[in-house]
Amino acid sequence: MKKTGILCWAGLALTVLVGCKSTKPKHAAVPHNATVVTRALSPDLLQPPKDLFVLGPGDQLEIERIGTTTARSTNTVGLDGKIYYSFLPGVDVDGMTLNQAKTAVEQELSKYESQPQMVVTLRAVASKSVWVLGRLNKPGVYPIAGSMTLLEALSLAGGTAKSASQITTQELADLRHSFVMRDGTMLPVNFVRLLQEGDMSQNIYLKPGDFVYVPSSLSQEIYVLGAVLAPRTVPYSDQMTVVSAVAGANGTIKNAYLSHVAIVRGSLSEPQIIEVDYNDIIHGKAQNVLLEPGDIVYVPLAPYRFITDYADLIVTTFVRTWSANEGIRAVSGSSGTVGVTVPIGVR
Fold first, then answer.
1. Which residues in 4-108 belong to E strands, given as ranges?
2. What's the CA gap between 219 and 172, in Å, rounded?
């Protein structure tokens, strides 16, 4: 039976202050009945895109009239999607390929002269880009005009950062929690296999708008998400438990479904999900559970039917939250965070 938010918070406070009927709380290691959810990459992701590049605002073109060496100019596609070449009033090229833009310019010029022949060359791309952020040597937003693999994008960003110490080359990137997001969905790339083991089956092709994020391995944090009052990262401390982590997020909200609180550990592409009965823990009927740095604690609002759906929900919430936060920081330089949307409904 569900408890009210007040009772849950009271139980939580009692557990934090006095433990479960003793002066020392009872802790247990994470149970061995963790479920590993494996999400395979679609073979299509390993194939170069077949779509031709199409123009958009900000792209820079070089336009030359064949047979006239002086009739060469550089034009930028405006915010209205048009280029303004020579005396033409404006040629709409937004969404066109280079060949289609060439034809459009020729058609406009043919209104004033006989059979003009043009050459249109792409000089710079501004309308299509990929976000490559996090613990990299040169994080940023990089233009993409053709095919680009994940390794190529990471190379443009200078590769993952390592310690500058002369006595160690410690990896500063948290590859377990690194991810690629496309259209609001995480692509199950295993960064450990790709970057440490050289597994090219993980080297997917990127598309414009993809978001690549590599977090820092130095941030000793627990991620508390879902039906809590203040979803956030909680600094990890020795002997941190699921109860203290939830307390660090100001406790659970009213009507949170406490019987199936989840701890997600390991790679986002192959997460281990452990279910705990939070209600029993805060009422002394079950042992508290110790956490590890990087664990995701998720409090649901409703029960779920399939463990794979539950794992997808948690990982998706994590990825979308980090993408929003890091995207805001990249654009505005702000260090603030955004709220987390808690999905509602039976899973």
1. 27-28, 35-36, 60-65, 72-76, 82-83, 91-92
2. 10
252-285 pLDDT tens trace: 999 999 999 999 998 999 999 999 999 999 999 9
152 burial level (CB within 10 Å; 0-12, 13-18, 19+): middle
Which CATH architecture fits 5-30+220-332?
Roll (3.10)
* CATH class of the domain comprising 43-50+128-214: alpha beta
DSSP run (H or E) holding 213: strand 211-214
Of 247 and 38, the structure prediction assigns the larger pLDDT to: 247
CATH topology of domain 60-124: wza like fold (3.30.1950)
pLDDT of residue 205: 97
Do the domains at 43-50+128-214 and 60-124 have one common CATH topology?
Answer: no
| Phi, psi of 181, rounded to the nearest 5 degrees | -115, 135
Contact 336, 328 (CB under 8 A): yes
pLDDT in tens, 115-137: 889 999 999 999 999 999 999 99
- This prediction has a pTM of 0.79
Q: What is the distance between the alpha carbons of residues 326 and 215, in angstroms, rounded to a whole number?
A: 10
Domain residue limits, the chain: 5-30+220-332, 43-50+128-214, 60-124
